[in-house]
Amino acid sequence: MTLVIAIDGPAAAGKGTLARRLAMALTLPYLDTGLLYRAVGRRLLDRAVDPRDAVLAEAAARALRPDDLHRPDLRGPAADMAASEVAAIPAVRAALLDWQRDFAREAGAVLDGRDIGTVVFPEAQIKLFVTAALEERARRRLAELHARGVAAVLEQVETELRLRDAQDRGRSAAPLMPAPDAILLDTTRLDADAAFAQAMALVAPRIAG
């Protein structure tokens, strides 16, 4: 049976960085599933249509191509909110479900997102739910934005994250929540190296077992 590691959690908790490092350490393919929703949202923003339009959003999801995931404009507040809005549409999630499952089917994978352990791979051998305090997540996201040359202030970023959290947790389709058998990893007081070390300590015994 191929090894699948599901990593879920809210925005800016560090799950993407952690997932990439775990994938490299364990020589597994890596997929940031959030890019799928960002790419769908960006397709709709390109056409100046409402990302909440279920019909157009589903069509955009079914038209998605691998190259769409490499666009340089999939990060930032506009892409963040568009991704959250299309992710709340059940038909979009259904359209992208096979994409995610096919990615890991042959060789296994580390996947990060918001519903990997609950919906996409409920049978995953290892599930981590990565979280952190809102204030710390806002500080990290602000640093990311500034590193990319995007002007932003901490209060604005914290407000946007709070709205994103509410939207992700409150949606009827695959709401953000830990799987019952997920391991909780709080990275509030951990840097990237410490989070990776702690995750490896949690994951290693399950792989060996």
UniProtKB/TrEMBL annotation:
Catalytic activity: dCMP + ATP = dCDP + ADP; CMP + ATP = CDP + ADP
Subcellular location: Cytoplasm
Residues involved in ATP binding: 9-17
InterPro entries reported in the protein's UniProt record: Cytidylate_kin, Cytidylate_kinase_dom, P-loop_NTPase
Extent of the signal sequence: none
GO MF annotations in UniProt: ATP binding; dCMP kinase activity
EC number per UniProt: 2.7.4.25
Pfam families: Cytidylate_kin
NCBIfam families: cmk
Family: Belongs to the cytidylate kinase family. Type 1 subfamily.
Name of this protein: Cytidylate kinase
Organism: Plastoroseomonas arctica
Gene: cmk
